[in-house]
Design brief:
The protein is mostly helical. The protein is built from 13 helices and no strands.
Length: 334
């Protein structure tokens, strides 16, 4: 297992450098002048423009800028925002708990509904239940996030008035930011109704963000279960008279979970990408909204630092998925 872990860690290093190079290159291709955007409506003379470019290091050759950027990353310095003048790492970790809370609730919802739906569809293959579940999954996968989010807002918030439209909690409540996770902080505050308010603000964004991963997980679980249910060891377990729950839940589902776990790991990238749209629709103060604002302001340092940090999160999740392979099937780690 240690050799398996070391091989996976060795792959992450060139992957991380490659992502850094791609992020650095693409950001430099964006149209617009960050110095002029910083000045706003004020007119900046050429001498001052050249001085600011030199102060920011944007007048040097790209290979020197990239080398300095990698050197800073090694020491934990992802740069300072051109607009806010704050370290990128500080801004990221102050906003990341909001995105993490939203993504965690979404993946719990997607896995909690997607895996049982896929198992039931496989066991009832060809029945109306199978067709209904897989048809619903296809519809969910096909709906654009921005359209689905606005539709839920119009119906549940505008027409029924059940849920709030935006934000993480009602303005009626204020308490110290202890963990960054609003559900936990609202409980720690001890204020009556704070947790309920935070939970109600989380419902619609979680549903919107979980819809596509739920559909993918359900379809992948069904496919994997259909393949496993036809294996000899499953037929043998049934012939021995084992209870159906033990046959399906232990013998079949555990082996079917390897491709499903892979799918769940890949959906983390989908969640973080979908969080950009979801956070914009629901005014959720996370890294998605932060990245969109940075792109519109041509804040090179924030965009490339944010992309790299998000990529690092995805790589760590996929490393955990690789380790889960060894737990589900120890032969993989040999």
């Amino acid at each position: 297992m240690l050799r398996f872990l070391a091989s996976r860690l060795a792959i992450l290093i060139p992957t991380f450098i490659g992502v850094a190079l791609i992020a650095f290159s693409f950001i430099r291709m964006l149209p617009g002048d960050p110095v002029m955007l910083m000045s706003g409506e004020r007119v900046m003379d050429p001498e001052r423009h050249a001085q600011v470019m030199q102060d920011l290091g944007l007048d040097r050759p790209y290979y020197e800028q990239f080398a300095d950027y990698l050197g800073g990353i090694v020491t934990g310095d992802f740069g300072t925002s051109i607009v806010s003048k704050r370290p990128v790492l500080d801004d990221f970790f102050s906003l990341f708990p909001a995105t993490l809370e939203l993504s965690f609730c979404a993946i719990i919802l997607a896995v909690g509904l997607g895996v049982p739906a896929g198992v039931v569809a496989a066991l009832k293959r060809g029945s109306w239940l199978d067709q209904t579940l897989m048809g619903s999954a296809l519809v969910g996968y096909s709906m654009p996030i921005f359209w689905w989010g606005l539709l839920l807002i119009l119906f549940f918030s505008g027409y029924l008035g059940w849920t709030p439209v935006s934000g993480r909690i009602s303005l009626m409540y204020y308490f110290p930011d202890v963990t960054g996770f609003m559900l936990i902080d609202s409980l720690l505050s001890g204020q009556a109704g704070a947790f309920k308010s935070a939970l109600s603000h989380l419902v619609l964004p979680s549903i919107v963000l979980a819809t596509i991963p739920l559909a993918v997980i359900a379809r992948q679980t069904r496919s994997a279960m259909l393949e496993v249910l036809g294996e000899d060891y499953v037929r043998t377990a049934r012939a021995k008279g084992l209870p159906p729950f033990r046959v399906v839940g232990i013998h079949a589902l555990r082996n079917a979970m390897i491709p499903v776990v892979t799918t769940i790991g890949l959906q983390v990238g989908v969640l973080l990408a979908g969080a950009i749209l979801t956070e914009s629709i629901f005014s959720w103060p996370g890294i998605g909204k932060w990245m969109i604002d940075a792109v519109s302001k041509r804040d090179y340092v924030v965009v490339q630092g944010g992309l790299l940090l998000i990529a690092a999160v995805i790589m760590i999740v996929n490393l955990i998925v690789d380790l889960l392979y060894g737990f589900l099937n120890p032969r993989i780690a040999r």
